[in-house]
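User: These chains co-purify. Model them together.
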Amino acid sequence: MAFTFQINNDVVWNHDEKLLKKAITNTPKILKTLVKPIALGIVEKDDQYLNGYKVVPSSQSIEKLPEQTLGRDESLILDLGNHYVGTFNISIDSVGSPMDAPLYLKMKFAEVPAELPANAADYDGWLSRSWIQEEYVHIDVLPAVLELPRRYSCRYIELTVIDSSPKWKASFSNPEFLAESCVSMSQLPEFDITDEELKTIYDTSVKTLLDCMQEVFEDGPKRDRRLWIGDLRLQALANYYTFNDLSLVKRCLYLFGGMTTDEGKIPANVFTAPNLIPDDTFLFDYSLFFAAILSDFVEHTGDTGVLEDLYSVAKKQIDYAKNLVDSEGRLQLTEDYPVFIDWSNEFNKETAGQAVFIYSLKRFISLAEKMGEEELPEYRDLLDRMIAFSRQTLFDKAAGQFIVEENGEINTASQVWMVLAEVMTPEENKKIMQEMIRTQFPITGIATPYMYHHIVEALFVADLQEEAVQLMKDYWGKMISLGADTFWEAFKPEEQDFSPYGSPIVSSYCHAWSCTPAYLIPKYLS
Amino acid sequence: MAFTFQINNDVVWNHDEKLLKKAITNTPKILKTLVKPIALGIVEKDDQYLNGYKVVPSSQSIEKLPEQTLGRDESLILDLGNHYVGTFNISIDSVGSPMDAPLYLKMKFAEVPAELPANAADYDGWLSRSWIQEEYVHIDVLPAVLELPRRYSCRYIELTVIDSSPKWKASFSNPEFLAESCVSMSQLPEFDITDEELKTIYDTSVKTLLDCMQEVFEDGPKRDRRLWIGDLRLQALANYYTFNDLSLVKRCLYLFGGMTTDEGKIPANVFTAPNLIPDDTFLFDYSLFFAAILSDFVEHTGDTGVLEDLYSVAKKQIDYAKNLVDSEGRLQLTEDYPVFIDWSNEFNKETAGQAVFIYSLKRFISLAEKMGEEELPEYRDLLDRMIAFSRQTLFDKAAGQFIVEENGEINTASQVWMVLAEVMTPEENKKIMQEMIRTQFPITGIATPYMYHHIVEALFVADLQEEAVQLMKDYWGKMISLGADTFWEAFKPEEQDFSPYGSPIVSSYCHAWSCTPAYLIPKYLS
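Assistant: Joint model of the two components:
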């Protein structure tokens, strides 16, 4: 995530070994499942599908794969039948005269059909080219079993022989994909959904979540393959209603809690290889969400040990943010500590940021109560001030909408987060959301399932269940009709070919923050 | 070698396990020598060098390599200081913010500077693209030691970061090249050459030979990396005067002797991985050279055991070829058993082929005498007939040159091979070569050191030592002045940018058949 790279090389980090040891103790065992391709595929143009491409089964049977010998510039596509995350191996032999030159092979791993015709050489975006899932391999002696050492996230595997020689061709057999996740579909609770469309959305969400559950809750197994707080919050919620892997949530909480700056701030994301490393990126809302994630966990598990270990970390995030609130209860954001809310920078995020603080502060106060916090009155006073300011200054009674103080801007994120923060009464919230629907739907300019999730949840919170379901179907359902096996990092219904990076080959098509129907449906519809 | 691919899938092969066991027993131990790059290099245009490029030392010291951090599209060149064959490893770390994307690295291994600016994507020649020595590697976690599993033949190693990320760069340290050969320079006999130019030619020839001496006498360690009879004959001769590794010659003789067709023919080349495999390529002159190589070996070593083991194989080659000679002594070549002589197909090879048969038959007869061959009179009769036909029909007295019977064509190869076969008297040979120099020098249209070797040796045989030395200097000396560290597969002095494949990136610049000054100088000049 994040369009803007932060570089903060001068940050001093404290590593709390006691907390990090608990993170390490909770490292999950990765389960491996053998997946065999179900078909040979062919890419076809079709405007009904994402970026105008689909993969259809070839007339050649996958059983006859070894007969599909490939020479210079010839290729074939293996279709795994669904999206998986894992490693790949395949047996290769030469057919014809003796092998008088190395085999030079290109392999492309694609989550969606549109990645297959995309040419890596054409990609010149700001995101690293190293994310493009393709490999070039020379094999000097055949027969051989090619075992690729890296992990891929894909449904389709394209094998292209860059060259053999005029005297022989390459023959492939026994392709194996070893799918990896720390959870299994067998852990899912029984859950009946009668609405077929919602059922498909739920199933696809669960698959998305499973593929992102590895040694941490990853944001995307293709990219960035790491633990971000914003994704973690939503993954943990979906996880409680599905696989319920508490150990993994614990691990991730301890990873953030164990690595803080000398000012007490937690990083927006952490790396776990070659060792535990905090990123030098900081986001105002993500830091505050630490308290929300801890509160969700304690509420779900009643685990007071984790609360006792991590309460002070949550408190530090709140305390740091508290200093940005003036005596009137107005949050004043700073440039070096941006609020994320959504990828888009085309709307003003100040009011939404104020609401995220209120949302998180409420959850922090519930933890502070459990901990017998001495400063509880100050936190309650802060909350009251921020709510009062929001109601009095940020709510435009005539418009029935929250505004941005500076310029009177009315935007979706402001309404959604103020509703989620429950700043107004339930009746007022409902009216705010109804007015938002009237004036701002169909939504445009929002590209992330992350923000769409919050809109849907705000509709549920505002008792607009029908509208919430409709938006879920319009958004996640649309991804399915465009061919999604798992839900995507980015999607704009009004601009279906949109990619934040200008090319599908670096986009992530299995992205954690899109898995939330696995939480929304069981929580609000059962 | 060979411009034309032969495909003979229906050949039935006999494997003589007794002979092949002796080939395996004589497999050499590969010696490994650690080579450290001596400099960072920069490619510069310079018409005085091969294909117009040279590498000069960078202003940055190799000692400061780790400080030369590379980001997207940045590269550096390591200069090993000489040509080597072996494996490469290097330590890599990230510098800057935490590593938030894989490192995507391209490595190019170049024997000569001209390979560095050549773009692999532009190569569309008939020879396999798989020979281009470049690799693409993703590294997910740094620091790491990158150990490439393949063997390369190179002096220069270019490292290009295709991408890191905007937040960090790659830093390289401790590059190591582990040079491989089955022989060591310490095995060389003392040998003084006062002529500086010849000494450089000799030294470069010896280095060429050493780099080609691996588990077999390879034709070229970059390409084709295998044992060809035509190269073996010249390598064995050079080896007797230098490293004198008799075991490797024996191994190669047994490899050919142990794999023959059901007609008794030996292949033009063999593969040794994944197991011992004869190629389905057959060349008339190469098959006959088996007798010559065996004769050279027996003469050099007096090893009658090898003669007894392999005599019958040599005899079968002679017998097969004998059937192509008519009662007048005229060789009649067939299309399915072509004579190589040289890459060029622009001259008629029939007379040269006739001479190669005479040359080989003479050596076979010397072996047959040692073996007490019963059919010796028939072989002597065959030799007499072929010589008589050559002298009477193929020699044009007026021109003082050998001709091609069919069209009267006079070409260099005919004169050279008839002189090497000593069909005429020494005085006549001298006149033939002098007339050839007068009418055909400076030589044009010949692209291989293989054919140039035979011209030079024919000059020595014809007692034209000064002219032989001059040609050696003009040809091998010219390669050195163009920048050669080892001698090349192909070189046309009159067309210095010539590549048989249209691009330097698939040419072999350390090629066995060019190493023969290491034989010619000690044999004829000491």
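Chain A touches chain B at residues 5, 7-9, 72, 96-104, 126-132, 135-136, 138, 140-143, 150, 162-167, 223-224, 226, 271, 273-274, 277-280 (CB under 8 Å).
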